[in-house]
Amino acid sequence: MATLGESENYILKLDNNDGIHWVPLSLTLVEYPKGDLIGKFLAFISLAPFGIGAGFISLILFRRDLHTITFFLGTLFNELLNYFLKHTICEARPMVRNSLYTEYGMPSSHAQFVWFFTTYVIYFVFIRLHHMNNNNIIETMSKILILSSSVIMSLLVCISRTYLQYHSFYQVLIGSIVGALFATLWFALTYMVFTPLFPQIVSWRISEILLLRDTTLIPNVLWFEYTNTRQEVRVRSRKLVSMKSQ
Question: Which of 20, 30, 150, 151 could cross-link with 43 by S-S, CB 3.0 to 4.6 Å?
Fold first, then answer.
């Protein structure tokens, strides 16, 4: 009976005979030193951009808000900018990992992504949500929680990329700066150029089909939806009671 090792060698021989070179999908593959608990924790942290991307898609599908869509488009353009910079600067990563990573390391795409996200959130809270400041302790605490968690997440992602030797300190630093600067530019475009166009965009037929909406002028969307839903439930309950009584 063939052992496991013999079976694996046989499979490898078949691959070599077929002339096929198998490579792993390294999009979400993160290596860390075996037995290093800190490295393992940071490896999970470095996957934060994928969690943020999944959150964006969920929000877009369920809320259909134009500002959320514009924010997401900004992250895509930010990634394109990073790709352009990497293949223009052509600086290698600090550690070679065989064929797992063939792209360049300057600037760090993870650092650029998380600091684009965090910087945009900071602008959004202080500029877009300034009119919500009514000394409500719950709203104040929620803003502090959003800002602090975003900054801490970004710092941990940057630390993880240098600790795990996927990027040098300067590659992470430049990525962070580029991400913050591009977030500033994108928020300015969104606030001064795109947002005034939202009322016109939601009136398009395609927007009605896709159920797109503009919540820019609503100070607290969650409270607005909560009060409207509660009012609608009460109206429908009264109608139901009146129908049963007839």
Answer: 30
What's the chain's average pLDDT? Answer: 79
- Could you give the CA distance from residue 115 to residue 154 in angstroms, rounded to a whole number? 6
Burial classification of residue 238, based on how many CB atoms lie within 10 Å of its CB (0-12 exposed, 13-18 middle, 19 or more buried)? exposed
Give the whole-angstrom CA distance, residue 217 versus residue 109.
34
Is 0.85 surpassed by the pTM of this model? no
Q: What is the 3-state secondary structure (H, E, C) of the chain?
A: CCCHHHHHHHHHHHHHHHCCCCCCCCCCCCCCCCCCHHHHHHHHHCCHHHHHHHHHHHHHHHHCEHHHHHHHHHHHHHHHHHHHHHHHHCCCCCCCCCCCCCCCCCCCHHHHHHHHHHHHHHHHHHHHCHHHCCCCHHHHHHHHHHHHHHHHHHHHHHHHHHHCCCCCHHHHHHHHHHHHHHHHHHHHHHHHHHHHHHHHHHCCHHHHHHCCECCCCCCCHHHHHHHHHHHHHHHHHHHHHHHHHC
The pLDDT tens digits for 114-162 are: 999 999 999 988 887 765 555 577 777 877 888 888 899 899 999 988 8
